[in-house]
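As a warm-up, study this chain.
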Amino acid sequence: MSDGKLKFDEIGYWSEIKLDIIREYATAYSTILTKQTGFSHVYIDGFSGPGVHVSKATGEFIQGSPLNALAIQPPFTEHFLIDLDGDKIDHLRGRVGDRRDVHLLQGDCNQELLTTVFPQVQYEQYRRGLCLLDPYGLHLNWEVIETAGGMRTLDMFLNFPTHDINRNALWRDPDGASPEGMERMTKFWGDDSWREIAYQPSPQLGLFGEDKEKVENEVVARAFCDRLREVAGFKHVHEPMPMRNTRGAVVYYLMFASQKSVPIKIVNDIFKKYADRTG
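Now compare it with the structure written out below.
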């Protein structure tokens, strides 16, 4: 569905589930932080879009993550909403109105987060934040993730885009992937160690076990969770939750990372609530 020159994303059942998960956690997060004397807390969306989607099931407009966040009670202190597409930001501005607690930023979130947003969520200033990184594909740089972990102030939801990764980088035959796709994967992963993880020796393919085959997507996703913990510096990382299409195939994994154990318990309860849903 479109509105003039702006085309709205059509989302399926599991994407709607993702919106519910993030909204439920954001409500719990804001409730807890509001009670902390002297603290302020912000909501950050690196790929905000126009604020609305179209449900594949009903054909109706549904609110996206930024508008859901703006409706959270008790409210966040501030909201930072970023998108590269100026038309989407303009549409979101029309939906948001003149709220002084909302900052709309048009630009590449890989730059805007590091130069404009993250510097405003400093540990020493008793600022805390919930950051949603939900890229359309491999459009996120590891530097952003690692910076978020090192700040000690952020809880983070991350879309690990399995479908785009497989399409651009992790082919069954690694020699078939394009150099551009592999470069994007390296920027997302932070280095080229993904190659050793994604392709393991297969004795069945070669007489001396020299040939390699691609591992299951879940193995790669879990290895990325290890990087969130061991390299980015998040002390607590939840097991990745598979998000599926109507055929049951995993399109991406929803990941969550925090510096505290309590958020992990909250997310665990929310994930369990939705894990057995079928679309």
